[in-house]
Amino acid sequence: MSGKSGKFVRLTNSYFEGGQMVPLESWGNHVNFNHEGYRSVGVYTPEQVEIYKSQKHLVSKGEGAVRGIKNVKSNCLIIDLDNKDNLNQVQIDTREVVARLINDYSIKSENINICFTGSKGFAIEVFLDKEYTSRELKNAAEKLTQGIESWDTSLYDDNQLIRIPGTKHPSTGLYKTSVTIKELNELTIDNIKEKAKTPGSIDWTEYPNSLPEDLFKPKFKPAKVVEFEGELDFSTNTMGMPNWKFAILNGFFPPGKRHESLMALAAYFKGSGFPQEVALQSILAASRLQYERNKDHYGDDPTDEGEWERSLSHIYGPTWTGGTFAYETNEKLKKSILDLFPEESLLEEQENENKPIKSADEIISGFKKFSKEIDKNKILTGIPEVDRNIMLTTGAMHGVLGGPGSGKTSLILNMLANNSNYGLPCMFFSLDMSENLIGGKLMARQNPIGFRELTEKYKAGIDLTETENLVQEDFKNVAFYSKSSTSVKDMKIQILKHQKEIGQKVKLVVVDYLELIAGPYSDATANSAHHAVQLKDLATDLDICLIVLVQPQKSAGDASYPLTSMRQVKGASVLEQNFRNVLGIYREGFSPDTPELDRFMTIKGLKSSFEGLFSVDVGWDGRTGKVYTLNDEGRAQLKRIRDQKKEKKEAEEGNSKW
After folding, report:
1. Which of 235-239, 253-257, 442-446 bottoms out in mean pLDDT, i.e. has the lowest?
2. To pair with 182 at 20 to 30 A between CA atoms, which of 76, 122, 315, 535?
3. DSSP structural state of residue 367
C-alpha cells in the first residue's frame, strides 16, 4: 500500500491530531481542499509507520502517536517566513530568500514553490535530489535565512506538520495560495490576500534540485559568554533591599543617572525608617564608589556633601511625598541599573512573571491547561517498564538514588536523549564530570569501543563523523553545563539564559549531583538540606521537571547493594519531604571479579506521589551505558545470579553461627 517509493506521508485535519499515514505517491487524493489540512514535512518508512500504529492508542486524539519516531527524512527544503504584525516585511524577506536561491545556488526560478500561507506569511519549498534529516534541513534553512528575523525555526522537528497548499486557514478563512515570483515582486499584500479568498490553482513543481552538501552541515558558532559587568555579589544583600537599590548603594549606576539614582536611594532610606544621618553617609559613600569606577567620565569627584545635606533635609521634611523617587516606582531607572547586571535582570523578569497568591479559579484553570498539555508536561524515562509505573511531571523535583558507579549518569543520559528526541528542551548540569568525560560517554553510547579507544582513534586521525552525527541527533535539544562550584541561583540564571536564547521553555533539567552544589555551610548534610528547598522552589518557579542525582549513605555498600528505602538517602528526612518521586538503582551483577555478569540494572520506585511503589529489572550495557528491556533468557540469568547470592549469604550466616 505504500506505492513505488515505499514511503508514507502523515495527513491530519488539524494541527492537534494523530491523523493517518497514506502512500507518498497518492497523498493528494486524501486531502479536502475546502477544509483545514496538514501533512508531515518528512516522509516515513514502513517501519516508522508500524511504530506510529502501535502508539496511536496512547494519547487521546492520537497526538502522541509519532512521539519518539526519529530519523524521519525529507527531500523537500521548506523555509517558512512569518510575522503577523508586519506582512510587508515578510514579503520583502521572502523575495530575499528566493533571490539567494537563484543567485547564490543556481536554482531555476520555475523550480521554486512559493505560497502565501493565508495568515502570517509565506512558505518557500524546493524539492531536492536526495533526502536529508530534519537537522540537516534546518542547517540549510538557517544559512539561507541569515540575517532574516521572520524565519520560523519550528519546522525542523522529525514529526513536524505543515499546512497543505490549497487548504483553508481555520482562522482567516483564506487559502494557502500559490504565488509566482512575478506576483511576489509586484503584488501588494492586499492583492495577495484578495487572491487567497478563493482556492485557485496550485502551481507546483517537484523537480529535484541539487544543493551543495556544505549547506546542510552545522554552522558551528563559539559559545557566547555573557560577562558580569561588575564585581557586586548580591548574596551579601542581607538587609532585604531591592537588588537594584543595593547596586546603587554600592556605586553601580550609569554616570548619566547619578542624581536620579542617589535620590531614589535617599527615598528608600526615608521610606524604610533609616535616620537622616545614616542616609547621608550612605549616599556619600555610594557617590564616591561610583566616582572611583568612572573617573574617566568625571575628572574631579562630583560628590558634594552640602548638596546632599540640603536634599535630605527636603526628603526628610514634612512636605516630601516621594514624587517620582518613591519606593519601587521608578521602573525606567530600575531597568537602567539592572541592565548593568544581565543575570540579575533575568531573575527580576522571571520573578515578576510569577504570581505567588492565586484564587481557586486560577488554580483550577492552571490545572486544566497543564492537563491539556500533559504530553509536554510529562517526562518519560524511555524505559517502558518504568514509565508504566511512575509519572514524572514539570513543576516538581524528583530524585535518582544510586551508589558511586551504579549507572546514575548513564541512566540520566538515556532519559535526556529520549526527551530530546521528543523535541523537549533539556539541560544537564554535570557538577561531577568534566565536559571531556561527558563527551566520551556520549560518544560511547553510539560507538561502544571504550573511552581509551575513542581517544586513540581521534589521535590517529580516524574519522568518527558518523558517530558524532548520531550523538548530535540524539542530544540536539540538550544543553550541557559542566562547571563545578555552581549554586542553585547560578543554575536558575543559566536556565533563564538558555530559554531566552532558544525562545522556548526548558522542560527537563538534571543535576549531577546534589552534594556537589555550592552552598553556605561546611557540613555537606546541612548544605543538602538547604539546597533541597531551593531546588524545589526552582522546579516550581520555572515549571520544570527537575531530576537530582543523590548518593546513598556509606552503609549502603557498593553498586550491587539493593536500595529498597528512602531511608538510605543521605539526609533522607529533608529530601523525602521535597522529592515528589524517587528512583533507586543498583546492579546485582556488579563485581570486579565477574564483570561478564554485570548485564542488569534494577530500578525501584522508593517514593511515588501518584502511583504505587514498584521494582523493575532491565538490561544494562556497560560499554554504552544504555538500558533495554530484558528477554526471557536475560530474566532467567538474573534469577540465577540472585539465587547464587542468596545461597552464598545463607552459607556465610550459617558458618558464622559456628
Report:
1. 235-239
2. 76
3. H
Q: Which domain holds residue 281?
A: 234-353
Does residue 232 sit in helix, strand or coil? coil
Burial class (CB in 10 A: 0-12, 13-18, 19+), 540: middle
Is the four-CA dihedral 607, 610, 613, 619 of positive or negative sign?
negative
Place of cell 499515514: 21
Using alpha carbons only, what angle is made at residue 434 by residues 428 and 438, rounded to the nearest 5 degrees? Answer: 60
Burial degree of 289 (CB within 10 A; 0-12, 13-18, 19+): middle
The predicted-structure confidence for 627-637, as pLDDT tens digits, reads as follows 889 999 999 99
Q: In what order do the strands lie in the sheet with 478-481?
A: 478-481, 426-430, 508-512, 545-550, 396-401, 581-586, 600-608, 614-621, 626-628
Residue 418: CB partners within 8 Å, gap ≥ 6? 68, 380, 381, 382
Claim to verify: residue 296 and residue 207 sit in the same structural domain: no
The set of cell numbers assigned to 341 is: 547586571
CA distances from 96 to 100, 101, 110 (A): 6, 9, 16
> In the numeric block, which cell numbers belong to residue 299?
575628572
Domain count, the chain: 3
pLDDT digit string, tens, across residues 69-108:
888 999 999 999 999 889 999 999 999 999 999 988 999 9
Q: How many residues are given for the chain? A: 658
Q: Which tens digits make up the pLDDT trace of 120-167?
A: 999 999 999 999 999 899 999 999 998 898 999 888 888 888 888 988
